[in-house]
Design a protein that fits this description.
With 416 residues, the chain is α+β, with helices and mostly antiparallel strands. It has 15 helices and five strands. The chain has a five-stranded mixed beta sheet. It starts with 13 loop residues before the first helix and ends with a helix.
């Protein structure tokens, strides 16, 4: 009988290994302290992640080393390296952030391996997903440090919910003497796992909707300001452009049966941005007729007012912007929009009053100071107009219109 096949693998001397490990630990900690700022400067996503870093304690290192000797970990005179001696966890708000973080890491570091743990589990199995990424240590961060040969570091990328599950699972399963073999307990864990996974998906769907809505709002708001610039231009002196008739749409054009207000708002804003202003106004009217709460009404009146303004229906726009302010007196933008329409209509005194109301609610609006400066100029209040221009510039308003208006004000002051 060949007894050699049953010989136990060679085990490292724990005392000697611990002494060697502890000699490296100060360098491990310094390296971790250098890695964290580099990661934060590398990862640029819309929601700011949370970073957790640690150097593995010797006890954990030694236990894992013993488990991995049969898996090919090389035992040498130097310290045998494991992939997670230096470990960093990046915790994100949304599922999409995980992909964005991975892209950032690929652009800043050399990647050895990416493992998506838990991705192959079924919904009946408990356990949760986590992306593990093994990265090379940048040479500039390892300079002047004494490190074992072949050292790399590991990053775990998770959502907030994935991280919460991992922490609880670690307490329930890995740190307990007995794992839950009982079928009802397993079902409960599987149910929690499914609920958290679904919550992550729903959060991402809401985030995607918000991002799309914000893009459409930015486009719509930009078009509104552009038209306001044209129609309230100083020395225009001409008649206001007439409202352009648009094709009437049938009342059954709206496809909603039980559609949410969010769906309708997004549909209306997309129609607005695509130039289908009658459809946008119609959808806003449908929402108003549903009599939502005052906060929602304030937003919808403001949106419909913009659609009317884009059609040069200034009186209707003015009425909607005023209703928006009435429904939510703290909505500083509504007063600003009222001021813009009043200025276009030549009612500069009332325009200034509404610009002032907006600024009383929010002092940090450079464009509102600029608009009030225009109205003050048209009222021949040149000193006050110049002061408002200075406030706008101090808050970062740096457009050609500001220089043009400033020169016009200075010329008027010099001629007095």
């Amino acid at each position: 009988m060949n007894h050699q096949a049953h010989t136990a693998p060679w085990l490292p001397n724990r005392e000697k290994l611990q002494k060697l490990y502890e000699s490296y630990e100060p360098s491990f900690q310094i390296l971790l302290d250098r890695l964290l700022p580099k990661l934060k400067s590398c990862i640029e996503i819309s929601s700011i992640p949370t970073y957790k870093g640690r150097v593995k304690g010797f006890g954990s290192y030694y236990r894992k080393l013993l488990r991995n000797i049969p898996n090919g970990v090389e035992l040498t005179d130097d310290l045998p390296v494991l992939t997670d001696i230096i470990g960093i966890r990046i915790i994100c708000a949304f599922l999409q952030d995980l992909t964005e973080v991975e892209k950032c890491l690929r652009s800043c570091f050399s990647v050895y391996e990416i493992e998506r743990k838990g991705a192959d589990r079924t919904f009946r199995e408990f356990g949760y997903e986590s992306t593990h990424i093994l990265l090379a240590i940048p040479s500039e961060l390892a300079a002047d440090l004494t490190l074992p040969k072949g050292l790399i570091f590991e990053i775990q990328v998770r959502t907030i919910l994935q991280d919460a599950w991992a922490e609880v699972e670690h307490e329930l399963v890995y740190k307990s003497e007995f794992s839950p073999f009982d079928l009802p307990l397993k079902r409960k864990l599987a149910s929690i796992n499914a609920s958290l996974s679904l919550a992550d998906i729903i959060f991402q769907e809401i985030r995607d909707y918000q991002n799309k809505l914000n893009r459409e709002l930015d486009k719509r708001r930009g078009a509104f300001y552009q038209q306001a610039d044209i129609e309230s231009a100083i020395h225009s002196g001409g008649a206001l452009p007439e409202a352009q008739p648009q094709e009437e749409l049938p009342s059954n054009v709206l496809p909603y049966v039980q559609g949410t207000i969010d769906d309708m708002i997004l549909d209306a804003i997309e129609a607005h941005n695509n130039g289908n202003l009658d459809r946008a106004s119609m959808i806003y009217t449908k929402i108003i007729e549903a009599e939502p709460n005052d906060t929602v009404l304030s937003v919808i009146y403001k949106h419909r007012g913009m659609a009317y303004f884009a059609q040069s229906k200034y009186e209707l726009a003015l009425d909607d912007f005023k209703k928006s302010a009435e429904k939510n007196p703290s909505n500083f933008r509504s007063y600003y929009y009222v001021g813009i329409v009043l200025s276009v209509l030549g009612q500069e005194r009332e325009a200034c009053e509404n610009f002032t109301r907006s600024l009383d609610l929010n002092h940090y609006q450079p464009y509102v100071y600029f608009r009030r400066a225009q109205s003050l100029y048209n009222r021949e209040l040149y000193t006050e107009a110049l002061a408002d221009l200075d406030r706008a510039v101090a808050l970062g308003f740096k457009k050609d219109e500001e220089q043009k208006l400033r020169m016009m004000i200075v010329n008027k002051i010099d001629s007095v």
